[in-house]
């Protein structure tokens, strides 16, 4: 199975190269509440003109967004596909609208998804070098020497990134190739997910007559775009609050070193409002978006909200509730989601990082007062994060709800080295002890 996965990831990398040569690729963020599609055009030089580009990555990204569309998601729950045909229809809708705006046909797509029970592992290994210089083959050899844990049936490796190299005890090297030394060591972060989720997504994309040129965790994508460079370097967590699930990722030294997800998000808050007020989900969503919050003041007792309804019962449909009552329904669920996030951060050993900034992003991060409540529950500095500005991105898709989609654009243009980018002798993989992702960070940094 390891070999199959290794080969399929290599095949996707090959596809991505073809897509970049052709000059266009689609980005697909398959979420529980929306499906977002961006069409990217690459200029072939790897650089863009510096004029009117904003943000640290806009100028050097080598692509511009030429099409963007979103549609309401169907058939996706907790970030996982549960009704293939409905999801296929929604993907086609978003893709066609984005292609129409871009005035170009797209064959290759790079997709991200949340959920799928991610699990993080920290692997390490060291080898004595055969020559004096670190070559590509030596890097492959040290990666092959990592003990891959027995991560269980029905799981697949989604990411496997070398996050730190050490050469003769000089740690913290991003890329040791070409350097001189005797002994090479590596720390690798490996993320596994439920295989069925990946297979369903790949199958769905195939049914849309598209070639899958890459796949990533939306926790990773959101972190790439919502964390600023210093945060990615010094250590920070990105909490991407979506509709069906909340993704958690921790970055350090510009690499993701841990990811997890909570099977709750904004849709669960909407569901509570719908139940509590006896209104349809669409009404509850509107009330949450325009009037919701998590922090009640005295004025909220007097601030009345028109609940509205379409039951035909005039008395019932003309009801109002106080904003304080609405907050009373929303707050317990928001607290529950944040408590779960806190448990994930504690399990990861987040407290041991040199910096402990937390960035909230995703559509549900826009609930009024959420940053204050999150700061209290998570016990760290919290800020709200919007995705980086990239070239050509329409105003309508610059909000926190698009952090994953924008992050995927950056991932498409500049993928980090992964295990399958090296000619690793795959048959050498033993399945042995499991290590949690953080242990080596305490030792190495």
Jot down its keywords.
445 residues; Dna Ligase, domain 1; 20 strands; 27% strand
Can you offer a commentary on this structure?
By secondary structure, the protein is α/β, with parallel strands linked by helices. It has helices at 2-22, 84-102, 136-144, 195-207, 218-226, 229-234, 266-277, 281-291, 314-317, 323-348, 370-378, 403-413, 439-444, and strands spanning 24-30, 34-42, 63-72, 76-77, 80-81, 108-113, 119-128, 148-149, 155-167, 170-173, 183-194, 211-217, 236-241, 246-252, 255-262, 304-306, 320-322, 357-361, 382-384, 431-432. The strands form 6 sheets. It has a 5-stranded mixed β-sheet with strand order 3-2-1-6-12, sandwiched between helices. Strands 15-14-13-18-19 form a 5-stranded mixed β-sheet, sandwiched between helices. A 4-stranded antiparallel β-sheet has the order 7-11-9-10. Helix 7 packs across helix 8 (281-291). The radius of gyration is 23 Å and the shape is globular.
